[in-house]
Write a structure and sequence with these properties.
heterodimer; A: Aldehyde Ferredoxin Oxidoreductase Protein, subunit A, domain 3; six-stranded mixed β-sheet; 25 helices; 39% helix; B: alpha+beta; two-stranded antiparallel sheet; 9 strands
């Protein structure tokens, strides 16, 4: 019996039969994976036929929270959605903060496991007692906020939290997102398309089962320490003011801000599109996830639109990465993409790749139904984003993602797709942050930083680097040395934050979470024994499972690599000038640490 | 009484968490006497808590289970209360609500409100003494048939209108 921390129950939903079943969560099953992302992966591994059609009824869609989600733990606001990815064909998952996770936790379900597909567009209203299947054909085409408001109004309860898909998810754009709390996005790997394929417009949650802690006073004293560390952290003020958008200037200052589709790492007009500019000109207030004291999110109002965000990835994706110099336009795109429910990184990659290929003469407009685009051409970008969301015209093909789109073009054009394992590379040029490069290469969901977020690499703590990772070079962003050790450590903390659950900006980037603090929190929270050593061991096991899982999907060692550009083509100017990534060497070292034969 | 400045609220719910935790040892918005709404269509977040209104609508209690404390706070006697819901129905802004046979309304933590301590944004402040809170007569007319949650939504939305005007002026 799980009484503390955990909700202690799982919910199984069969959309085809419109039935649900409540099961108790077995402590021996959950303890070795903690919860959240690690538990989702284990569940998928056990229950998914790896050969299934990711957009068919057999795909298993899992919403998961952890033992400390929605608790007294600061920023315990994350949930992970996991399924086989329709974009990459391998392990897919994506996490989001906001308010959904805590409310889901309060329903008493640690996991919601959804299979089958509905014959009609519907949403699920999940409460303590189970599921109400609500048909909603009239919601077709509605945005996230419209859907949320409609559900709340209909059910006369404005504390209901909603994770919905927009038109992009309904149209099964392969990189469609799930969006909750109005603008909080499970963006990567196309989880929104999986929902769309199941005719599932939204998952709405409203709970009343409180989170109980095994030792509330011990837990409280841990939280007081953590909160003090957060509020006195040297990055606190900057994060409070700009959130992750602070990275626009930070990355530019070290020459790794993706500019014109990674052709450059320095953007000359960065001051026009920076986090500083956003905060000064358009921010009207701070926004926050559940129980967080960093409040790093922001609400903005422009003449034409308003929304929460954007985070760095979206801001960079719709400014320098595609040559756009207008901040208001990027804000318009942020609002639009969120409400259409589409991943900004993958959308930007489609656009940036076409722009570069057309500039190089590798793709003729005739090959794209007459579409031609040049850097920062706003009307075209707006049009293309819309065509993708609704799969209109050539948008129907672009909606399958850049890698698939590239397959009918020349090898030269294919090489310019910035992806690993079919997932588009995030904003951050790995030529100047080698540990990030390694993370993109080995991340089990494809090119992504959040699997490890080795932010330590940028903190210049040389002595600490030597002590912790065996070489000062681990704190040298341009070195390959020591990076496998750094990533192997960081990926465990990343998985830990995703599994407790907690925010990674705080847990990992601000260095708040480690095995010791997590052990204290978990023991006081759940009453189960979680020694630091045990935690480290089970996190290693969970990472091995990711690896094994992807082998089932056909991933091979040679897929753990980076686009050729990062390996062979040095940047021409700026503080990262001349640098390329020796990815093979780092991956070999990383495999050695993990004792993986292949 | 507790005063709210909507322009500073980020919607983090630390007040709600602190309230539930220090009263019950558990975390749930059902157990909190201050409840935060996130109105995504407006970008407005805000807590709803007893404002010590001029009218004292909740004092309709037919068995006199509700009394006023020295700080103006509402005190509910659980032994006298018959769970008739009259106070919940009477409050025009949903600041008093029953859950699991208990009436939840702000008791000001005896003069040191935990929600105020928890707020890092100064969005809620504790004001001692004074003439009591605002009149809620206009809300009472509008929210009669609403659920407590709907009343809270209506209240925050109305309060948020002024803030939104300020935002649009910034960009005029």
């Amino acid at each position: 019996m799980l009484r503390f921390g955990y909700g202690g129950r799982i919910l199984r939903v069969d959309l085809t039969k419109r039935r649900f079943r409540i099961e108790s969560l077995d402590p021996s099953w959950i303890k070795p994976v903690i919860g959240g992302r690690a538990a989702n992966t284990k569940r998928l591994f056990e229950e998914l036929n790896p050969d299934c059609d990711p957009l068919g009824p057999d795909n298993v869609l899992i919403f998961g929270v952890g033992p400390l989600t929605g608790s007294l733990l600061t920023a315990s606001a994350y949930f992970t959605v996991t399924a086989k990815s329709p974009l990459t064909g391998i392990l897919g998952d994506s996490a989001a903060g906001g308010q959904f996770a805590a409310e889901m936790k309060h329903t008493g379900f640690d996991q919601i496991i959804i299979t089958g597909n509905a014959d009609n567009l519907l949403y699920l209203l999940i409460t303590d007692s189970g599921v109400e299947f609500v048909d909603c054909p009239e919601y077709a085409g509605r945005t996230i906020v419209e859907t949320t408001s409609a559900i709340r109004t209909k059910k006369r309860d404005h504390s209901i939290q909603v994770a919905a898909i927009g038109p992009a998810g309904e149209n099964q754009v392969l990189f469609a997102a799930i969006v909750s709390s109005g603008n909080r996005v499970n963006g990567r790997t196309g989880m929104g398309a999986v929902m769309g394929s199941k005719n599932l417009k939204a998952v709405a949650v409203r709970g009343s089962r409180p989170v109980e802690l095994a030792d509330p006073l011990a837990f409280l004293s841990e939280i007081q320490k953590i909160d003090k560390d957060i509020l006195t952290h040297k990055e606190y003020k900057k994060r409070y003011k700009m959130g992750t958008t602070m990275l626009m200037k930070d990355l530019n200052s070290i020459g790794i801000l993706p500019t014109r589709h990674f052709q450059e790492g320095v953007c000359d007009y960065v001051d026009e599109i920076s986090g500083q500019k956003l905060a000064a000109a358009f921010k009207v207030k701070n926004k926050s996830c559940f129980n967080c004291n960093v409040h790093c999110s922001r609400y903005y109002v422009t003449d034409e639109n308003e929304a929460e965000g954007p985070e760095f990835e979206t801001l960079c994706s719709f400014t320098s990465r595609i040559g756009n110099q207008s901040l208001p336009f990027a804000l318009e795109m942020n609002a639009y993409l969120n409400q259409m429910g589409m991943d900004s990184i993958s959308t930007s990659e489609v656009i940036g790749w076409i722009m570069e290929c057309q500039e190089r003469g590798l793709i003729h407009p005739d090959d794209l139904d007459g579409l031609s685009m040049t850097w920062g051409e706003r009307d075209k970008i707006r049009l293309v984003v819309d065509m993708i969301a609704f799969r209109r015209g050539i948008g129907n093909e672009l909606a399958n993602g850049t890698k698939r789109l590239s397959e009918r073009f020349s090898e030269e054009a294919q090489k310019l797709v910035m992806h690993v394992k079919g997932l588009d590379v995030i904003c951050g040029d790995p030529r100047g942050i080698k540990a990030y490069g390694l993370t993109y290469a080995v991340a089990s969901r494809g090119a992504d930083h959040l699997r490890a977020e080795p932010y330590f690499e940028l903190t210049n703590r040389k002595e600490e680097a030597k002590m912790r990772f065996g070489t000062e070079k681990a704190a040298d962003r341009l070195a390959e040395e020591g990076k496998a050790a750094l990533v192997s450590y960081s990926e465990k903390i990343a998985l830990l934050t995703d599994s407790l659950t907690m925010c990674k900006n705080i847990g990992l980037c601000m260095d708040i979470l480690n095995f010791e603090s997590a052990s204290s929190l978990l023991e006081a929270g759940t009453g189960l024994e979680y020694s630091p050593k045990y935690l480290e061991k089970i996190l290693e096991n969970a990472i091995n499972l990711d690896h094994k899982f992807n082998r089932r999907f056909g991933v091979r060692t040679e897929d753990d690599t980076l686009p050729e550009r990062f390996q062979k083509e040095p940047l021409k100017r700026g503080p990262t000038k001349g640098s390329t990534v020796d990815i093979k060497k780092m991956v070999e070292e990383y495999y050695k640490i993990h004792e993986w034969e292949d | 009484m507790i005063q709210v400045d909507l322009s500073k609220c980020t919607g983090c719910k630390k007040c709600e968490v602190a309230c539930a935790f220090f009263h019950t040892g558990k975390i749930s918005n059902r157990l909190a006497r201050i409840k935060v709404l996130n109105l995504y269509e407006l970008g407005i977040d805000g807590p709803v808590v007893c404002v010590q209104c001029q009218e004292k609508y909740c004092m309709v209690c037919p068995v006199d289970a509700l009394t006023l404390g020295p700080l103006g706070q509402v005190i509910v006697s659980p032994t006298v209360c018959t769970l008739c819901e009259a106070c919940e129905k009477a409050c025009p802004i949903g600041a008093i609500e029953m859950f699991d046979d208990i009436v939840y309304v702000c008791d000001l933590c005896g003069g040191k409100p935990k929600c105020v301590e928890a707020c890092t944004e100064e969005a809620i402040t504790f004001v001692r003494g004074g003439k009591g809170g605002p009149s809620l007569a206009s809300f009472q007319k509008e929210t009669k048939k609403m659920s407590p949650s709907q009343k809270r939504q209506y209240y925050v939305e109305k309060q948020g209108t002024k803030l939104r005007q300020k935002w649009s002026r910034k960009h005029a």
